[in-house]
Amino acid sequence: MQSLFHDSSPDFGPVKYEVNKDLIRQLESSQQQLQQLRLEYDGEAKLWTETKDSEESLQQEMNSMRTLLDRNSYVTVLIDGDSLTFSKELLSKGEQGGLDAAQSIAGVVKSFAMDGLPHLTTVNIHVKLFMNVRGLIDTLLRQKVIQTSVTYENFLRGLLNSSMIFDVIDTSCMKGMTTRKIKESYRHDYINVHCHQIFLAALANADLAALLNETPDVPVHERVTLLEARGLQSTDKFDHEIQSIKVDAFLTKVGSEMTAMKTPAAKIATPVLARIESNSSSKTINSGQASSTSTPVLTWAAMTAQPFVPKPGDVRSGTSTPISATTPPPKTILPAIPRNKLGQRVDGVDESIPYQELQRIKKMKLCNIYYLQGKTSCSGECGHSHTYPLKTAERNILKEVGE
């Protein structure tokens, strides 16, 4: 039976060989794939480790750089002093008003930094005030905002003596110089990585709009804040929304709500001498008259008035007759002598003399003493010309030059 069964069973030898061969081939392929995956995994793991190390290194470098930037960080305040000025109350205080104005600016900036710049531990404030100093002082004097130029000079001294960096840039009287300086400073600050915020206090005109619109980047505009003063009205629209802070409590437009109120001139009450007591024994004065005339209204004119001294001929001996106060004769008002800003006298020029002739005589360097006072009045050490044959008309021009 066994032989019969063995003989009838099929021969699986070749089939088993092929199956085993195929299994071995699959095993080798799987091993190769496993090895490839292992290599890829090792490469990915190495790359991940290197990336993590590089990221940590970059993070540390960025933190150190941020610390360095924050340590040297600052915010800048640019003020157009030709268009905006501080309130009359601050200006009238002189140096103390300057210190108070600087403190007000610092308060606004620090209040903004608490919410808008929380990463800064300390806020360094750099304020730049651009203006024509002489022109602004003349304007404030003309508008009766200040009484003397010394008041404003003391106010500026208070600003400069404040704890923050405060620069006053005198742009002279050249037209458009203030706007140009503000633009240059703005462009320098918004590309400076140490400058974290720019506060602009200027007129909202076409120049300011063009300045802000020339940098269309939104992150740049997030670093710009407008300080809105009293009397400003926006006339131009910006391409991007700009945040603003009202500072009308201490900053105002020049000529807006700061001109002194014109009050009628106070009537100067001059003391009237109703009765001058004589040396006689009669000193009885009517009570009603005494209350109204013996105590005149105390005014500055009364305090500075010279006491009335009667002339010896007007005093009558042995009588108590009152002497009426006579009105003093009007004083002759002499014409004022024209002077320049330095207080020096300015003499008028004869307008009938041609300008070219006046300049020609000046360039000739003639000796005034020799030609106007005579030869004997001139010393021998004079370096001017004495040989030119001067005509009568030229002598008159030389006289005008000498004056």
From TrEMBL:
Region entry Disordered, spans: 309-332
The keyword Ligase belongs to this UniProt entry's keyword annotation: no
Keywords from the named record: Coiled coil
Name of this protein: DUF7923 domain-containing protein
InterPro entries listed in its UniProt record: DUF7923
Record bears the keyword Coiled coil: yes
Lineage per the UniProt record: Eukaryota, Fungi, Dikarya, Ascomycota, Pezizomycotina
Stretches assigned to the DUF7923 domain: 70-233
Coiled-coil portions: 20-47
